[in-house]
Amino acid sequence: MRRLFVFPGQGSQQVGMMEGYEGLPEVRETFAEASEVLGEDLWRLTAEGPETVLALTRYTQPVMMTAGVAIWRAWRALGGGLPDFLAGHSLGEYSALVAAESLAFADAVRLVRLRAEAMQEAVPPGQGAMAAILGLPPDEVERVCAEVAGEEVVAAANYNSPEQTVIAGDTAAVMRAVEAAKRAGAKRAIPLPVSAPFHCPLMRPAAERLAAALAEIPIARPKVPVIHNVDVAVHDDPEEIRMALVDQAWRPVRWCETIEWAARAGVGVAVECGPGRVLAGLTRRIAPAMVSIAFADRAAVEEALRAERSAGAPSR
């Protein structure tokens, strides 16, 4: 049975999120490496907070990218095999590319910090917003956004599941879309506590800064295929990978289609490689027949390892 490992992005962070991985030395070692690159103690931030600082984009993004890589390294050090595919939700795609040995970890840490700062600085505070629309089909969400946008920006930013689409754009336009979605029959329409309107055209300036940085970073052909969620495609060519990462900053995350693509490719097991269970929950809604596992702590990692050995899966 083919396997997909997926890496979470911004939104899964919380103080204490790495406590369940004690005894896996690769976890602390990976955080130490990232901390040295940035000159900041990321481990202390995850362990002690404060939550308000951890929630800041410039910290959240490198912390979550590091967490995904740390748990991946622990899995591999224990003898866990390579999956057939890798993917990451938004920011998590950087963790996936590191796992695929396409992007060096230190380069990914620097890129993610720049990406975070560029996204935060692309739109003045208060000018942008995001909201989750629940219980309304994606095409209806798109229609609502187009209907109320006017001269402002509001568009689908994350296609998370058939029942959940996140929108982003100018604050006033997002609020109009929230009210219009409720009138159109959405079960809920909830403004999100975020610091910038990610994955929408307002992020084009951030994408331009990211493109300049990526032009200087070596990228290798992935050793494990990575499904990019901006175009739901697998790329071998480093230039195509660069373009996918640039486009990903300002175009929507097509997560629902990513999981559906994997299911059509024969994936029967999806493993969330990172703290939390957000992606595991989304997988169950998108592809109910797919087995969904979350490496939410050391016990889950070791249980999956025992299952792999019991099944006689090859350790590539």
Task: Record keyword descriptors for this entry.
316 residues; alpha/beta; four-stranded antiparallel β-sheet; 13 helices; 10 strands; globular
Describe it.
- The chain has 316 residues and is of the alpha/beta class.
- Helix content is 48%, strand content 16%.
- The protein has helices at residues 25-38, 42-48, 51-54, 57-77, 92-99, 105-122, 138-148, 171-183, 204-214, 238-248, 255-264, 278-286, 298-311; strands at 2-7, 85-88, 128-134, 154-161, 164-170, 188-191, 226-228, 233-234, 267-272, 291-294.
- The strands form two sheets. Strands 8-7-2-1-9-10 form a six-stranded mixed β-sheet, with helices on both faces. A four-stranded antiparallel β-sheet has the order 4-5-3-6.
- β4 (154-161) and β5 form a beta hairpin.
- The longest helix is centred in the first third of the chain and has 21 residues, at 57-77.
- The chain is globular and about 55 Å long.
- The two termini are 14 Å apart.
- The model has no long low-confidence stretch (mean pLDDT 96).
